[in-house]
């Protein structure tokens, strides 16, 4: 994890360089320790599917550029080691978690969490 934290601090990564490595590691573990229920996970996926607009409130939550970047990352590496094969067979941006959650995003159509 320490090596990844150092890589995140490299120039051109858009990650603030002045943040100590220990704080980067702490942030990583905090973001991987969030507890949500399946409805909230589905709402997160649906918000990405709607271009960053929460479909329940109608409020813009994410900038469209951020959504585009997130979906690109989900397409290329969201399913870990099988991302390439998964994208070839399933064809939608998805992400899995260590807890077993899978989120799928069909842009402009729907978001799914299972």
Structure description:
It is a single chain. Helix 1 (2-8) packs across helix 2 (21-31). A hairpin with a 5-residue loop joins strand 1 (94-96) and strand 2 (102-106). By secondary structure, the chain is mainly α. It has a three-stranded antiparallel β-sheet with strand order 1-2-3. It starts with a helix and ends with a strand. The protein has helices at residues 2-8, 21-31, 38-49, 64-77, 83-89, and strands at 94-96, 102-106, 110-113. The mean pLDDT is 89. The protein is globular.
Structure summary:
This protein has 114 residues and is mainly alpha-helical. 45% of the residues lie in helices and 11% in strands.
SSE ordering: HHHHHEEE
> What is the residue-mean pLDDT, rounded to a whole number?
89
Strand arrangement in the largest pleated sheet:
1-2-3
Poorly predicted spans: none
Characterize the biggest β-sheet.
3 strands, antiparallel
Q: Choose one word for the global shape.
A: globular
* Fraction of residues in helix: 40-55%
Can you count the beta strands? 3
Given helix and strand content, the structural type is mainly alpha
DSSP strand (E) fraction?
5-15%
Give Rg in angstroms: 15 Å
Work out the helix count.
5
What is the straight-line distance between the termini?
A: 28 Å
Topology, element by element:
Elements: H1 2-8, H2 21-31, H3 38-49, H4 64-77, H5 83-89, E1 94-96, E2 102-106, E3 110-113
Antiparallel strand pairs: 1-2, 2-3
Helix pairs in contact: 1-2
């Amino acid at each position: 994890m320490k090596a990844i934290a150092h890589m995140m601090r490299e120039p051109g990564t858009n990650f603030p360089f002045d943040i100590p490595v220990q704080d980067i590691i702490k942030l990583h573990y905090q973001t991987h320790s969030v507890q949500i229920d399946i409805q909230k996970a589905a709402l997160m996926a649906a918000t990405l599917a709607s271009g960053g607009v929460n479909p329940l409130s109608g409020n813009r939550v994410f900038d469209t550029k951020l959504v585009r970047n997130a979906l690109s990352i989900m397409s290329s590496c969201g399913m870990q080691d099988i991302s390439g094969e998964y994208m070839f067979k399933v064809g939608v941006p998805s992400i899995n978690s260590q807890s077993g959650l899978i989120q799928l995003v069909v842009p402009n159509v729907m978001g799914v969490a299972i």
